[in-house]
Every structure is written in C-alpha cells, then in structure tokens.
Specification:
By secondary structure, this protein is an alpha+beta fold. Helix content is 19%, strand content 36%. The radius of gyration is 17 Å and the shape is globular.
Length: 269
C-alpha cells in the first residue's frame, strides 16, 4: 500500500492569516496527500485551524492539545486523513526545567490495508535547547514502546512534525538509531534523507519572508519518519520533497515549508 504524507507547521495565526490560509488550502488541494500532520494548530475547543483548512477538502481531523494560550484557546498538533482517523492519546512531553509545553498526538488511521499508527509532534524550538529535545524524543520513544508494539495486523508507524533540529543533531540521530539516550534507542527512516534532493531546508529566511526576522541559519527541521524495516520487512520511502514553498506577492503559506513523502507500507516487491 502506498500512502502520501504531508507535514506542515501552520505558524498559528501569525502574519496575514487569511492570505496564508488560502495558500495552504490551495497547496493541500493540489498535493492531495492521504494523511497530514499539522503543528502550531490553535483551537477553541470545538473548532481548530486544522478544521478550518480541511473544510471542503474531504479530510477528517483529530486535534491534540500541547498547551493553553488563555481565553479558552489552546495550541497543539493535528492529524488529518482521507480515511477515518481516531485520537488514541495525547502524551505530554517533558520541558526539562524550561517553560516549554509540548506533546505528541497518537492517532490511528483506518486505511484500506489496515490500521496506520500516525504520530504528530512539535519539539522545543530554541536553538540552545537541544537537551530539552533530547528529553522529548526519549519520551516519544518510551511512549511508542508502550503503545505501539510492532504487529503484523498494523501498518508501520509514521511520525511527523517540526522537530526544530537539524539532521545531524543528537535528537534526530537518536530517532534514526544512530545514537542512544539513557540506555534506549529507536530506529526510524528519515524520508527526505533517503529520497529527497538538495539540502531540503524547511526553515530558510533567505527564501521565506516570514522566517527572515528570526535571523537563523537555513535548516531542515521538519520531518516525515517511518518505522522500518519491521519484522515483516515492510515499509520503504518512495519519494520526498519540500513543498508549500511558494511566495506569492510577498506571502508564504507559513514561516516553515512543508515536506511531502510517498511511503510504501507493504512488503517488498
């Protein structure tokens, strides 16, 4: 079974939201992904930015809170799918003594080929907070081990999100099985590393006017990750590319660009 997956940080309602929303909606319609992970999603408890963007596009939406913003508004992650999607659990992530409040949304997508565990997260953003992100990815790995053991009747797990770390950072190396933390390790495939071209920068002030004020170096910090190979040798990356990267009349869809990956979740041919 092939599945196209999109991840995009919405940048909440910052900047010219209506113009950005139009670009996001048009981009999603054009790309037509099967499953979408969104970060920096704002919600009033009954309606979220993800619901607003998904209107008339045919996606079901599951929202998971990360932190309250006040006035009944929360900030978190969302999973969108063309197939039925159900929230399994929202797992808070550690802030490691900082004011960061993050979470990982565990959802389950009911595809024609079986249940797809689909996780969406957004890690601590400050560049000097690698130690916070390390604690957060360790918590994600522990949560996966507790909730998502590999089973033949379930498709390989997919984790997407704004991880706020470059591919060579310890926290990303941990997720890819190249570094251990606290005596534990994990192994996920980085879709863009395997099938993308070029540097794949998703936060780049040189080409995105909304990223420019942060004065940060261009980086690839948004990911589609796939658990593979499992015991049945399922799961591979077919293609990956940076998307939602157009600037129209000085307006980009977000301060981040997105990543679109096509995954083959079946057995090798």
């Amino acid at each position: 079974m092939r599945c196209t997956v999109l991840t995009i940080n919405l940048w909440n309602r910052s900047g010219p939201w209506e113009a950005r929303a139009a670009l996001l909606r048009a981009g999603i319609a054009s790309l037509a992904p099967d499953v979408i992970g969104m970060q920096e999603v704002m919600s009033d408890g009954s309606h979220s930015l993800a619901h607003e963007l998904a209107a008339d596009l045919g996606y079901g939406v599951a929202y998971g809170e990360a932190k309250p913003l006040g006035g009944g508004i929360t900030f978190g992650n969302a999973a969108l799918s063309r197939w039925p999607v159900a929230v399994r659990e929202v797992v808070p992530l550690p802030g490691a003594g900082t004011d960061e409040q993050r979470s990982v949304l565990f959802s389950e997508v009911t595809t024609p080929s079986g249940a797809l565990p689909f996780l969406v997260t957004h890690l601590a953003w400050r560049m000097q907070h690698g130690f916070v992100r390390e604690a957060q990815v360790a918590a994600i790995a522990e949560a996966i081990a507790e909730r998502e053991p590999t089973r033949e009747d379930r498709l390989p797990l997919v984790l997407v999100g704004d991880l706020n770390a470059r591919p060579d950072a310890t926290e990303i190396r941990f997720l890819k099985g190249l570094h251990s933390l606290g005596g534990a390790s994990l192994h996920l495939l980085d879709a863009f590393e395997l099938a993308g071209e070029g540097p794949g920068h998703t936060f780049d002030g040189r080409s995105n006017p909304f990223a420019a004020p942060m004065n940060e170096p261009p980086r690839r910090i948004d990911y589609v990750l796939l658990r593979s190979p499992d015991e049945w040798h399922r799961g591979s990356v077919v293609s990956a590319r940076v998307v939602l990267d157009s600037v129209v009349d000085g307006v980009a869809a977000s301060d981040h660009f997105g990543v679109l990956a096509e995954l083959d979740l079946g057995r090798p041919r």
